[in-house]
Structures are given as structure tokens and as C-alpha cells.
UniProtKB/TrEMBL annotation:
<dbReference type="InterPro" id="IPR013783">
    <property type="entry name" value="Ig-like_fold"/>
</dbReference>
<protein>
    <recommendedName>
        <fullName>CARDB domain-containing protein</fullName>
    </recommendedName>
</protein>
Length: 627
């Protein structure tokens, strides 16, 4: 008896061979596939030319045989199509291939299912034609009858003609040397200025416009750049000045050194408008109109290398502009009038009107989607020279922070001290809030008083959570602040109302913890970030030298000084992931896994030098008022 295979039977039919009566034909059946996992199709739909960092919606089909309620991983890769242009019988490593996503499909049942995923392209791509390919069950956690079809393979016959599942995309070719400004944002809703004729009591170190620029670089010739800021006055661009924390002075341009492969540069700015420019703006200001201050930021290559593009080195933006006219305070100043009712009363140098000396500083720093800190400071000396002569001294400071778009009040303190000759409404009150909780309250009202506070706290609190994709790995991150805060203030009244000392000091840094629950990766947080280091000091006094037998010149003497020492958001905060992935090779124009390798990915959420490191007098006034 002879056993003849299916191949021999086919050969006999082709050659016309006949079997004898005693011959027996036995055919070996094709093995039945009892278990298998396979991606049978990948597509994106029609797409225009893409940019690095773009997101591509990708569709893929999964075929499951012999499994029910199975969990399986799928890894996606981006490979330059030039890698497959040369077909060789020799195995060679694929150089331009990047893992771009890891996804786990849960509870799959037998049969065919359709899925979709948003794939984010890496920041760094040479440009050109790319293939999106995938591998299912990369760690062989499930036993299958056919393992070769889990990915493109030279050992899987349907793939031998290059017909492996993939999607084609086209990415813009990258520039050889190109700086670019992407956007500009301000840390204030409006620019509110005093008229040039008004002595606003501020030192020469002041902060009119606070904000940040986002920038990027393409190419391999990194170097120093300079940024110039100009404002529009009567149809002409006029240069203004940046605060430089390193040189501790104002400069014509802001220097910035780009960081390799950061691709999300954060460039903070602190702009001061000099008196001549303020006068020009005021001359062309119309209080009856909607006034906007137009600004132009221009980035300049310090090395003067020939950039391939210069049309992306400029940002035009604007911000509402107001000049604060004291006589029209309730209408013209969209600030905190509701908080201090007396501030709506215009100050008077002589006469019997109430007199109000006050100033505020209200700015925020940073990007709310990552890290941002807002500082709101206020100080006031309010004097009542008639009726029941007296006065009031107030101070207030609030620090708010945004972590991943979540708003948190880190710290708030307020002080209010008053004194009147009659003894009525004479006393003080103070309150401190930390992380939305009142931790300190104190008040006392009496004819005379003196009180000193010296309190310190150390805090460590998680205040936000978010998920970021670092390379192909999603990382869940929790972030918070750690540091100390406190105040040291002396207040009192005994013929003179006074308050002196540090209303508050805060010193907070940001910390983060992160991790993944995938077997194929490890992840972590790298952070050295000063969130805020701020001391707000105040010295205020008001003495009431009224008419007595030995005082023939009744008068009130006063003084108020508000100082701030501020350093906001300096350092870096980032995430990293290490994937235990696949090394890819090619042969006969087909890509396939050929080993293992570890790849590290970094994502810097924030990386900046301190540009707000400044000490200055917010407000300073002193004098006499004759009654």
C-alpha cells in the first residue's frame, strides 16, 4: 500500500498518471487552526500631509480564533518606508522605526472586531512616507497555532509579497535650521496703568506685563536666540524692555537658549514700560473707547545663521489697556473695588476728605495646563481726618496654583487693623487659609493694643492627578507641593497705628509621583521645580497729632511701604518611561521582530530659568496732612 500526499495527487493529475486497482490513496488534511490572534487590516482614511506631534486616528481589525474573554496587548510602530526600498536576502536592522502606542484590548470574544486609536506622531521625524504597523500579543502570553501572523513576518506566506497589514501616511519634511514662536499668553486679563502724572509710589523695578511664550526648534544647529518686544503707539512699533533675573536689570532683549528635543519651550517674560513710553500711550488713550495694547514679539538668531524659514519668528497679540484715573475709580478700574469700599473714594492731599493710599499686584505665571502660580497682593492705609479721626491698615496676600488645569488655593492671609480716637472700632483681625482650610484666626478690639505673630507651617500635599503619554506609554501622575510658609508681623495702636514685618512668606516646590501598570514598561517623574518663593513685607503707620495745649498745629502723619521679593517657577519638571520592546529587522522588503531592546522616552512638562526673580517696592508713600 502506498500513501500519497496531496502534493503528489496534484502532480498525478497534471501528468495523467493512473492508479492501479490495488493502489490506495490517502490524503493528509490541512491542519485546523484552533487558536489564533491576528491583526488583519490597518487604515487611517484620507489624510493630508501631517506635522510632527499630530494625532492620527487609526482603525484596525482584530481576528480572534479559539479564545473567549481574552485580554491582549497591541503595540503600534511607525517605520519610514525608505527602510523597505531595498530588498535583500540578508537580514539587516531597521534604524528608523519608533514605537508610538501600547494598548490593551480587554475581554475580546471569538470572531472579528473593529477598533480605533488616536496615535500621536513623535516630535522628531525626518519627514517623508511612513508605514504604521502593529504587533499583537508581543510577549507571547497566549499559545496560538500560528504565531507568525502576530506581526509582519517572512515566515508567514501571505506576507511574502509585502502584503502585510499597514497604513501609509506622509509627514512634512523637517527644516534644517528653524526657530519658531508658536504662541504668547499673558498672566493678567488687562494692563491697568496709572496716568504718567501720578506718582504711583513704585520703585524702578516693577512688572507691567507678565506672561510666557511657547517656541520650538527644528534642525541640528542649536544656539542662543534673542527675543524683542515692541508695542504699537500711533501706528509705530516702539521697543520696550525685559527683566533679566541673571543680570538683575532690564534689557532690550530676552536671551533664550533652546534645549535639544524639548519641542515645547516655555519662555517666561516680565516686561516694564518706561516713563517715556507710558506718556506716549497716555497721549493716544481714549477713555471712551475700547483700548487694546498691541504687542509684537520677534525671535532673532544670535548666531545669525541662515534660517530656512523666518516667517514663523514673530507673534502678534494684544491685551486690554486701561489708565486708572483716580477721580473715576468706580467706573475706570476693573479691579478689586468691591473688596475695599473706601478705595472708591478719591485721595485728597488737603482738605477734610477721607484719604486712601493703596496698591495691589495681581499677576499669574506659567501655563495652567501644566503649572501656573498666581500672586495677588494688596496693601492699604486709609485715613479719616474728620469726625472721629482715625485710620485703618490692611494687607492681604493670596497664592493660587494650577496643576494640570486644576485650580488650588495654596495660601491666603489677610490682616485688618483700625484705630479711632473715640476707641470705637479699634482693634485687629487676621486670618490664614492653607489648602482651602482656615488654619488660623485672631481678632481683638480694644482702645489700645499691640500684637506680634510669628507662625510657621510645613506642608506637603497632593493636589492634582493627570495622565500623560510618554512615547507610547500612558503614565498616571499625581503632583503637589511641598514647602513652608508663615508670617511675622507686629501691629498696634497707642496714639499711633502701625503694622510692620513680613505679612507672609511662602516657599513651595512641586513634586510628582508616577507609574504604569504595564509589564512592558517602567516610568517615573523627574522634578527640580521651585513653584514659588515669595516674601511680602509691609510697613505702615499713621499718627494722630491732634489739637492739645502743647500742639498748635494739629496734623496726621503717615507712611506706607509694600515690598515684595519674588521668585516663581524655576527649574524643570518632567516624566520618563522605559519600554522593554522589540528590535526590528528586515529581509526581502519585509519588517519583522528580531530581538529585544530597551528604549527611554522623556517628556518635559516644564523647563525654564527663573525670569521673575525680583525684589522691588510695590508702593511707598509718606507725608503729613494738616487739619
Amino acid at each position: 500500500m502506498r500513501i500519497i500526499t496531496t502534493a503528489l495527487l496534484s502532480l498525478a493529475a497534471l501528468t495523467g498518471c493512473q492508479f492501479g486497482d490495488n493502489d490506495t490513496l490517502t490524503v493528509s488534511p490541512v491542519p485546523e487552526v484552533k487558536s489564533n490572534l491576528e491583526i488583519t487590516a490597518i487604515s487611517t482614511g484620507p489624510l493630508d500631509t501631517l506635522e510632527p506631534s499630530d494625532t492620527v486616528k487609526t482603525y484596525y481589525t482584530v481576528d480572534v480564533t479559539g479564545f473567549n474573554n481574552v485580554d491582549v496587548e497591541v503595540h503600534f510602530y511607525l517605520m519610514h518606508s525608505d527602510e523597505l526600498d531595498v530588498s535583500s536576502e540578508q537580514e539587516a536592522a531597521i534604524e528608523d522605526i519608533q514605537q508610538i502606542a501600547v494598548v490593551e484590548l480587554a475581554a475580546l470574544t471569538e470572531g472579528t472586531s473593529e477598533h480605533e486609536i488616536d496615535l500621536q506622531l513623535p516630535n522628531v521625524l525626518e519627514g517623508g512616507n511612513y508605514h504604521i504597523i502593529a504587533q499583537i500579543d508581543p510577549n507571547d502570553l497566549h499559545v496560538e497555532d500560528i504565531e507568525e501572523d502576530n506581526h509582519p513576518s517572512v515566515d508567514h506566506e501571505p506576507h511574502l509579497d509585502g502584503e502585510f497589514p499597514h497604513a501609509d501616511i506622509v509627514v512634512r519634511e523637517q527644516e534644517d535650521h528653524d526657530y519658531k514662536l508658536l504662541s504668547a499668553a499673558f498672566g493678567q486679563s488687562a494692563l491697568i496703568l496709572d496716568a504718567p502724572s501720578v506718582d504711583n509710589g513704585a520703585s524702578e523695578h516693577h512688572s507691567d506685563l507678565i506672561g510666557y511664550l511657547e517656541a520650538d526648534y527644528e534642525g541640528g544647529n542649536l544656539g542662543l536666540s534673542h527675543i524683542k518686544a515692541e508695542v504699537m503707539v500711533a501706528g509705530n512699533w516702539v521697543e520696550t524692555h525685559f527683566w533679566d533675573a541673571q543680570s538683575n536689570q532690564y534689557t532690550d532683549t530676552l536671551a533664550h537658549e533652546f534645549t535639544a528635543e524639548l519641542h515645547d519651550e516655555h519662555i517666561g517674560f516680565d516686561i516694564a514700560l518706561e516713563p517715556e513710553l507710558l506718556q506716549q500711550l497716555y497721549t493716544h488713550y481714549n477713555a471712551q473707547s475700547d483700548n487694546q495694547l498691541e504687542l509684537r514679539f520677534t525671535l532673532i538668531d544670535a548666531a545669525k545663521d541662515a534660517e530656512t524659514r523666518t516667517d514663523n519668528n514673530e507673534i502678534l497679540t494684544s491685551i486690554p489697556l486701561y489708565f486708572f484715573e483716580q477721580a473715576d475709580a468706580p467706573q475706570e478700574r476693573p479691579a478689586r473695588q468691591a473688596r475695599i469700599n473706601e478705595s472708591a473714594i478719591a485721595p485728597a492731599a488737603v482738605g477734610l476728605a477721607n484719604i486712601n493710599f493703596s496698591s495691589e499686584f495681581n499677576k499669574s505665571y506659567g501655563n495652567k495646563s501644566k503649572f501656573s502660580v498666581g500672586v495677588d497682593l494688596q496693601g492699604q492705609l486709609f485715613i479719616v481726618p474728620t469726625g472721629d479721626p482715625g485710620g485703618r491698615i490692611t494687607g492681604e496676600g493670596t497664592v493660587e496654583a494650577y496643576f494640570f488645569n486644576a485650580k488650588n488655593t495654596l495660601f491666603s492671609i489677610s490682616y485688618n487693623g483700625s484705630a479711632y480716637i473715640s476707641g470705637l472700632n479699634t482693634g485687629y483681625e487676621s486670618e490664614m487659609i492653607i489648602f482651602n482650610n482656615v488654619v488660623f484666626e485672631d481678632e481683638k478690639f480694644t482702645a489700645k493694643y499691640e500684637k506680634s505673630w510669628e507662625k510657621k507651617w510645613e506642608e506637603d500635599k497632593v493636589i492634582a492627578q493627570a495622565t500623560f503619554t510618554v512615547g507610547p506609554i500612558p503614565i498616571k501622575v499625581e503632583a503637589g507641593v511641598t514647602g513652608n510658609l508663615g508670617f511675622e508681623l507686629t501691629v498696634g495702636y497707642n496714639a499711633e497705628l502701625y503694622a510692620e514685618g513680613d505679612l507672609f512668606h511662602v516657599d513651595f516646590g512641586a513634586f510628582g509621583r508616577g507609574g504604569v501598570n504595564l509589564l512592558v514598561a517602567s516610568a517615573g517623574v523627574q522634578a527640580i521645580l521651585t513653584l514659588i518663593d515669595n516674601t511680602f513685607a509691609m510697613e505702615s503707620n499713621a499718627g494722630f497729632a491732634l489739637l492739645t495745649n502743647d500742639n498748635t498745629n494739629p496734623h496726621i502723619y503717615y507712611g506706607i511701604e509694600l515690598k515684595n521679593d519674588l521668585d516663581v517657577i524655576s527649574g524643570k519638571f518632567g516624566l520618563y518611561a522605559e519600554t522593554y520592546g522589540v528590535k526590528w529587522c528586515k529581509k526581502w522588503g519585509i519588517p519583522y521582530p528580531c530581538g529585544k531592546k530597551t528604549t527611554r522616552y522623556d517628556l518635559w512638562l516644564y523647563q525654564t530659568n527663573s525670569v521673575f526673580d525680583k525684589s522691588w517696592t510695590i508702593y511707598s508713600k509718606e507725608g503729613d496732612i494738616n487739619l
